[in-house]
Amino acid sequence: MHVMEGYLPFMWCIIWFVISFIIVAFGVYQIKKIVDETPESKALLAVSGAFMFVLSSLKLPSVTGSCSHPCGNGLGAALFGPAVTAVLATIVLLFQAILLAHGGLTTLGANIFSMGIVGPFIAWIVYKGLTKANVSSTIAIFFAAFLGDLLTYVATSFQLALAFPAPSFATALTNFLTIFAVTQIPLAIGEGILTVIIWDRLKEYKPKLLDKLGALAPNEA
Amino acid sequence: MNRNTLILLAVICAIIFIAPLVMYQGHGEDDGYFGGSDDAASEAIESTNFKPWFSSIWEPPSGEIESLLFALQAAIGAIIIGYFFGYWRGQRKVE
């Protein structure tokens, strides 16, 4: 999902940078508000960020025969929403761009947009929708994490097809989706399961805090 | 969830990631297996005659250093999760 340093036309770097900047700025504001209102959620924020740190460092093999990495963005999205998750993703992506030459500073905006905004946004919608319908939060978090991961890669495919519509947008999109999204399916299932395990423990240890953040289904609260 | 369900989930997860290693046993990077999808995308971009216009300000000088930094990234995340989960578990026992 990382668009490598310099691999996007200048115009697209700027576009994604501007969009991502606005949302990350809103996320910073939200974090301030959450920490002021519920100071005990600081640790949960740290854990959500740390979960992304771990998962996005693991390059895993897929049944398609190539390797990719999960994102870990579903957990933060379910707990705090997409804007806060965008801030956490920015930290992870900066670490990787500066120290690992993985992703890049020019493509930072584009990478934040896919991993920090589109993925978490979908995860958040799915999570809220399912829990509101009284689906157990443990089941809901699986689908949130699964789709958050998968849609992150779908978003990257769209970004690349928009920037490189050769020979046509549709062909380019199919091409990039084949590279990214298909490889990602088993990884996204794995990420879903890992997030479920973490979620189950969180529910066991911090039920009151999860309830306070509005992160549980009404019948669980 | 009870302990057995959690263990079962962890096992399923492990199978998902071990299966490709078994399926493509004997294959490797040389014949096009287990490469990164990020790199595959970069190659697809280069095939449109696009020339990357900026390169990383710093790159890990070798594969060893790169794996060091990736392991460091995972370790930082894992230590934070482990610290808080251990703390919360203890807190709950005291309550």
UniProtKB/TrEMBL annotation, chain A:
Provide the primary localization: membrane
Pfam (any one): CbiM
Report how it sits in the membrane.
Multi-pass membrane protein
| GO biological process terms on file | cobalamin biosynthetic process
From the record, give the transmembrane residue ranges: 7-31, 43-63, 75-99, 105-127, 139-164, 176-199
Q: Mind telling me which Gene3D superfamilies this protein's record contains? A: 1.10.1760.20
Name the domain of life this protein comes from.
Archaea
Q: Which UniProt keywords apply?
A: Cell membrane, Cobalamin biosynthesis, Cobalt, Cobalt transport, Ion transport, Membrane, Transmembrane, Transmembrane helix, Transport
Q: Where in the cell is it found?
A: Cell inner membrane; Cell membrane
Would the keyword Cell membrane turn up in this protein's UniProt record? yes
Question: NCBIfam families recorded for this chain?
Answer: cbiM (TIGR00123), PRK08319.1 (NF006184)
Oligomeric form and interacting partners: Forms an energy-coupling factor (ECF) transporter complex composed of an ATP-binding protein (A component, CbiO), a transmembrane protein (T component, CbiQ) and 2 possible substrate-capture proteins (S components, CbiM and CbiN) of unknown stoichimetry.
Q: What does this protein do?
A: Part of the energy-coupling factor (ECF) transporter complex CbiMNOQ involved in cobalt import.
Q: Under which name does UniProt file this protein?
A: Putative cobalt transport protein CbiM
Task: State the species of origin.
Answer: Methanobrevibacter millerae
UniProtKB/TrEMBL annotation, chain B:
GO CC term, one of those recorded: plasma membrane
Q: Which Pfam families does UniProt cross-reference here? A: CbiN
Classification via InterPro entries: CbiN
- Pathway membership, UniProt: Cofactor biosynthesis; adenosylcobalamin biosynthesis
Membrane as UniProt keyword: yes
A biological process term (GO) from this entry: cobalamin biosynthetic process
Q: Where do transmembrane segments lie in this chain?
A: 7-24, 68-88
Indicate where this protein resides in the cell.
Cell membrane
Q: What are the record keywords, sorted?
A: Cell membrane, Cobalamin biosynthesis, Cobalt, Cobalt transport, Ion transport, Membrane, Transmembrane, Transmembrane helix, Transport
**A GO molecular-function annotation:** cobalt ion transmembrane transporter activity
Tell me where the signal peptide lies. Answer: none
Source domain of life: Archaea
In the bilayer, the protein is annotated as: Multi-pass membrane protein
Q: Does the keyword Cell cycle apply?
A: no
Q: Which family does it belong to?
A: Belongs to the CbiN family.
Describe its assembly: Forms an energy-coupling factor (ECF) transporter complex composed of an ATP-binding protein (A component, CbiO), a transmembrane protein (T component, CbiQ) and 2 possible substrate-capture proteins (S components, CbiM and CbiN) of unknown stoichimetry.
UniProt function note: Part of the energy-coupling factor (ECF) transporter complex CbiMNOQ involved in cobalt import.
Return the protein name: Cobalt transport protein CbiN
Natural source organism: Methanobrevibacter millerae
